[in-house]
Write a structure and sequence with these properties.
Layout: H1 8-18, E1 21-23, E2 35-37, H2 39-58, E3 63-65, H3 74-79, H4 82-85, E4 87-92, E5 99-101, E6 121-124, E7 127-130, E8 140-143, H5 148-153, H6 155-162, E9 168-177, E10 192-202, H7 207-224, E11 232-236, E12 248-256, E13 259-270, H8 272-281, E14 287-289, E15 294-296, E16 299-306, H9 307-318, E17 319-324, E18 327-332, E19 343-347, H10 352-366, E20 371-373, H11 379-389, E21 393-397, H12 399-404, E22 406-411, E23 417-421, H13 425-433, E24 446-449
Helix pairs in contact: 2-9
Bound molecules: glycyl-adenosine-5'-phosphate.
């Protein structure tokens, strides 16, 4: 099993320095368990969400998406079991009064001061607030701790409006909130985070087959987007310790800088949620099977993943340090579909005639992909900067370009360079971003350097 190559300090440092992630409310000393995504971070996050949405919704006939509200009727959380069961065991140090999640600390003493710990008590991690101007028991609502319930309570709305046949799924992405007792490991465990969840409704009895199917699909999704297969693993939950709604649960775990941890949970939720909401609301949430002429409550398979944990995993696996002459090159080898910037346009000088030409080249391609125009510092430093933010291709415009209307394209991973006609640039970049070999040339192109190993 291969070991992780990057430590957390380097990742946090890079994220701060290059504008991927900042601490929330940093100028006030920060708010624990909350993070802000900077200019590059938001691009990476959106690309991750888009890659998931494409694979889970847009590329499939058996899937639809929704976006439900974060605040839901409080009865939802009674019926789902969260009001009673969504708890973590909390222990408090009798010496320094610090609180810990009992299942996340080793031993029986306080990890902070070595003092004695209280008996564990169950702490409900849902955030409470009030709806409307009066703050009383009748106006209590919760910030959702998972997006999943939005899909269950809309099951019949979706069924009636889309006329989907089983098996089919409902997917959504959105913020969830958990008042975690302890947060940590950067964006891994926070109090405000984003989830991408899908509820796949199946005929009872076919659930085991579909569980295997989704486990396989989800593992492939990570690998197809650049995660090393040897950095993923599957952890089967013990039957005795399953969540209150689950028949079977597997975690997909990833080798994070701090070790193996859950990136995604796959749960077989049976008909628990639909039945609970049916009973509590009085609205029948079942399915009429045209073929067998039966009414039944579907079973559910749920792949549930955190966007922030995906972000950290894609970042950790992309991070490479390579010797480059006397220095070390830091490069984020993101899959092109996830890279925050796809192409950088780098004029060799700021001289007016060259800048005008380079801006014209930029204009021709900027509508197609996320681009950056950078004319500061030496070309070597600019390449370094683009490597460090994971830009797959740099396009250099030099004085010769004004004569021959050709530009140099540099490949991030191999550092190989080709020179191609500007007229072929857009087509060539599109092909290479889709996986074409870098040294494959368009008409009128030539290889400038081909020392690096081609990916
Ligand atoms: N609907 C099922 C559900 O929410 P979960 O295992 O509690 O299951 C699913 O959460 C995923 O959400 C986790 O695998 C993780 O990626 C992410 N997640 C959960 N709690 C989180 C937290 N405090 N911070 C960041 N991500 C979290």
């Amino acid at each position: 099993m291969s070991e992780t190559t990057v430590n957390m300090e380097k990742l946090v440092n890079l994220c701060q320095r290059r504008g991927f992630v900042f601490q929330s409310s940093e100028i006030y000393g920060g708010l624990s368990g909350c993070w802000d995504y900077g200019p590059l971070g938001i691009e990476l996050k959106r690309n991750i969400k888009q890659a998931w949405w494409k694979a889970m919704v847009q590329d499939r006939d058996d899937m639809v998406g929704i976006e439900s509200s974060i605040l839901m009727a409080p009865q939802v959380w009674v019926a789902s079991g969260h009001l009673v069961n969504f708890t973590d065991p909390l222990v408090e140090c009798k010496g320094c009064n610090q609180r810990f999640r009992a299942d996340l600390i080793a031993g029986t003493k306080c990890p902070n001061c070595g003092g004695a710990l209280s008996e564990p008590r169950n702490f409900n991690t849902m955030f409470k607030t009030f709806i409307g101007p009066v703050e009383n028991d009748a106006s209590v609502v919760y910030l959702r701790p998972e997006t999943a319930q939005g899909m269950f309570v809309n099951f019949d709305n979706v069924l009636q409006t889309t006329r989907k046949k089983l098996p089919f799924g409902i997917a959504q992405q959105g913020k969830s909130f958990r008042n975690e007792i302890t947060t940590g490991n950067f964006i891994f465990r926070s109090r405000e985070f984003e989830q991408m969840e899908m509820e796949y409704f199946v005929k009872p009895g076919t659930d085991e087959k579909w569980f295997e199917y989704w486990l396989n699909e989800r593992m492939n999704w990570y690998v197809n987007h650049g995660i090393k297969r040897e950095h993923l693993s599957i952890l089967e939950h013990e039957k005795a310790k399953l969540a209150h709604y689950a028949k079977r649960v597997c975690d997909i775990t990833f080798l994070y800088p701090m070790g193996w941890e859950e990136i995604e949970g796959l749960a077989s939720r049976t008909d628990y949620d639909l039945k609970q909401h049916s009973n509590a609301s009085g609205k029948v949430l079942d399915y009429y099977d045209d073929e067998t002429k039966e009414h039944y409550t579907p079973y559910v398979i749920e792949p549930a993943v955190g966007v922030d944990r995906c972000f950290l995993a894609f970042l950790a696996d992309a991070y490479h340090e390579e010797p480059d002459k006397d220095e070390t090159r830091v490069v984020l080898k993101f899959h092109p579909s996830l890279a925050p910037v796809k192409v950088a346009i780098l004029p060799l000088s700021k001289k007016e005639n060259l800048a005008a030409y380079a801006k014209d080249v930029h204009q021709q391609i900027r509508g197609q992909y996320a681009t950056q125009y950078d004319d500061t510092q030496s070309i070597g430093r600019r390449y370094r900067r683009q490597d460090e933010i994971g830009t797959p291709y740099c396009v250099t415009v030099d004085f010769q370009s004004l004569e021959d209307h050709r530009v140099t394209v540099r490949d991030r991973d191999s550092m190989n360079q080709i020179r191609i006609p500007v007229a072929e640039l857009q087509k060539t970049l599109t092909a290479k971003l889709a996986g074409e070999a870098f040294l494959k040339l368009p008409a009128g192109g030539e290889v400038v350097t081909a020392k690096g190993k081609e990916a």
